[in-house]
Amino acid sequence: MKQTYRSRTAFVLAWVWLAFVAFNVFDLIVRYSGKASLVALAVLGALTALVYAVALRPATVLTEAGLVGRNPFRTTFVPWASIEDVTVSHSINVHHGEEQVLRLWTPMSSARERAKAQRRGAPAPQRGRFKTEPTLTKGEQAAAEAFSGKTHADWVGDQIRERAESARRRDGQAAPARMTWSYDAIGVLVVAVVLVIAAIVVA
């Protein structure tokens, strides 16, 4: 079963930006004013390429065969049995091979999110003689304990760690990781840079 994790905030903001760019491109074409419009279109193109690379493309994908880490300019595939350890700080760090570390771009854990998770994990204060909090079911209590003090990045890190441990017990032998460059992101950025240079030359 394939599971994909992204930064929801970055993903939503990226699509808002694309809608903003589409409106402005239409407006610039309708009200074309020569060199100034060309420069504006080139700048929008460059910024959109950057948004694609850092907000739309990054993802952490859990497949049957292994972990796929899509960062802005490269994609790394690590078989489950090759993963030796997983640590979570600001980002999820996957240790594999000979002291190699794959730092996943998403999901990340901000200081604010971690502080919120710690508050969520703290026991609720008892106020007065009578309980005013609703009684949780066993399922709700189990879910609350599982997420107690953990951020989304911590939870995804746990999923990666569990799959890796299961694969090491089952397979034993670890295959090497594979890294490929993200030609789509690189190509988009190259086109954006060419547009900016052309706009500057024309202007």
List its traits.
three-stranded antiparallel β-sheet; alpha+beta; five-stranded antiparallel β-sheet; single chain; 8 strands; 203 residues
Task: Determine the mean pLDDT.
Answer: 84
Structural class: alpha+beta
Spatial order of strands in the largest sheet = 1-2-3-4-8
| First-last Cα distance | 52 Å
Low-pLDDT windows of residues: none
Number of domains: 2
Major sheet details? 5 strands, antiparallel
Question: What do these coordinates show?
Answer:
With 203 residues, the chain is an alpha+beta fold. It folds into two domains: 79 residues, no CATH class; 107 residues, no CATH class. 52% of the residues lie in helices and 19% in strands. The protein contains six helices and eight strands. The strands form two sheets. It has a five-stranded antiparallel β-sheet, covered by helices on one side. A hairpin with a 3-residue loop joins strand 3 and strand 4. It is elongated. The termini are far apart. This is Low molecular weight protein antigen 6 PH domain-containing protein. Keywords: Membrane, Transmembrane, Transmembrane helix. InterPro entries: CFP-6_PH.
Short structural description:
The protein has helices spanning 8-30, 35-56, 111-121, 138-147, 152-170, 183-202, and strands spanning 3-5, 59-62, 66-70, 74-79, 83-88, 92-96, 100-104, 178-181. The chain is of the alpha+beta class and 203 residues long.
Topology overview:
Elements: E1 3-5, H1 8-30, H2 35-56, E2 59-62, E3 66-70, E4 74-79, E5 83-88, E6 92-96, E7 100-104, H3 111-121, H4 138-147, H5 152-170, E8 178-181, H6 183-202
Helix pairs in contact: 1-2, 2-6
Keywords: Membrane, Transmembrane, Transmembrane helix
Domain Low molecular weight protein antigen 6 PH: 57-88
Protein name: Low molecular weight protein antigen 6 PH domain-containing protein
